[in-house]
Design brief:
The chain is of the alpha+beta class. It has 7 helices and 11 strands. 30% of the residues lie in helices and 24% in strands. The chain starts with 12 loop residues before the first strand and ends in a 5-residue tail after the last strand. Bound molecules: benzoic acid (BEZ). Keywords: Antioxidant, Oxidoreductase, Peroxidase, Redox-active center.
Amino acid sequence: MGLRLGDTAPDFTAETSEGKITFHEWLGTSWGVLFSHPADYTPVCTTELGMTAKLKDEFDKRNVKVLALSVDDVESHQGWIKDINETQGTHVNFPIIADPKREVSTMYDMIHPNADNSLTVRSLFIIDPDKKIKLIITYPASTGRNFHEILRVIDSLQLTANYSVATPANWQHGEDVVIAPAITDEEIPAKFPKGYKKIKPYLRTTPQPNL
Ligand code: BEZ
């Protein structure tokens, strides 16, 4: 059975473009993003890795470590990284796992045989500091991911981990959030002193509590 939200992210040791990594130890107390790419020297992947590198400050701000995976070997990764740096105007600043034996890809169910028998699809896992999987998304090879959306989701996950709130459709950091249904109206003033709006008994909003 594949991995599900709330599962512990499987630990592994793998060679990467920055040396050998044991995943849980490498994560330490950080959040993590682990994401796969079909293969080295492919155009969409090149833009995705360049974009991720450019967003390093944003990931750092959120205490998130980023780890990419592609099924090619370290030597191939090193050559490809030069191309990414050159074409995307950046410097790849995170490790890329070399997974030629498909060990990590198989562990994380990143190979979808109906898409391709041997290459990984675009899987992405967000992992919290307890090593629990908080989000899984899967895109086909032909669709590059939106890494601003990944940051937005991390903002939501980090907020909702600490407050009894949820984030509505298209929510962005700084906007009002939804009060969790489990919170009674009587409990709201103590928990959300900035006030709230009761649009329906089940739809109550409050200013983002951690600002
Ligand atoms: C790409 O990353 O550009 C790509 C990889 C596999 C199939 C299609 C596109």
